[in-house]
Amino acid sequence: MTAIDPAIAKQLADALATGPTALFAVLSQLFTAVPGVRTATFIATAPDRTVTHRIGTSNPTHFPIGNVDKVDDTPWNNRILVEMKPVIGNDPAGIAAFIPEVDGLLEMGYGACSCFPIVIAGETRGVVALLGDAGIFTPSALAEIDTLLPIAALTFTFHGISER
């Protein structure tokens, strides 16, 4: 077993002490360091589980903080919130299977999208959404992402972060 890199541990500790914005910046750097990942976005599930909302992103121009989506009976919500499993669209057809806004993502130059639920104590508290070029979610990239997801759960240590 390898311990986390001391420099990264220091960045995370400093970010946790500073607040959520600083933590999102460090997490964004870590996730976008995965080959091919260009954008990382962090989504919270409201405590009443009626909506999800964007709480952090590496690309606030295209993915503004505060955007709210209703939790309804759609493939994405069922997969992430009910099954608590990731959504991996490694090409436009794969994205379209779960995300109706695929055309907008393609127009922005993205060809792959993955969304990973952050499950804490048996419920999805949030999601890490990653975007990049088609084909980037290889087994090695997914393994690297898997090592970062528990660190992303630190997001939900901030009081009120899931409130809308």
Describe, in short, the structure shown:
This protein is of the alpha+beta class and 164 residues long. Helices cover 36% and strands 25% of the residues.
Structure explained in plain terms:
The chain has 164 residues and is α+β, with helices and mostly antiparallel strands. The protein has one domain (6-157): 2-Layer Sandwich (Beta-Lactamase). It is 36% helix and 25% strand. It has six helices and six strands. Strands 3-2-1-6-5-4 form a six-stranded antiparallel beta sheet, with helices on both faces. A hairpin with a 5-residue loop joins β1 and β2 (51-57). α1 runs antiparallel to α2 (20-32). 32% of the residues are buried. The model has no long low-confidence stretch (mean pLDDT 92).
> How far is the first residue's CA from the last residue's CA?
39 Å
Helix content estimate: 25-40%
Q: Percent of residues in beta strands? A: 25-35%
Count of structural domains: 1
Q: Supply the CATH class.
A: Alpha Beta
Total strands: the figure is: 6
Q: What's the quaternary structure here?
A: single chain
CATH homology superfamily: GAF domain
CATH architecture grouping: 2-Layer Sandwich
Largest sheet: 6 strands, antiparallel
Helix-strand string: HHEEEHEHHEEH
**What value does the Rg take, in angstroms?**
15 Å
Instruction: Give me the CATH fold name.
Output: Beta-Lactamase
User: Could you say which overall geometry the principal axes of the C-alpha atoms support?
Assistant: globular
| Helix run count | 6
Strand neighbour order, sheet with most strands: 3-2-1-6-5-4
Average pLDDT figure: 92
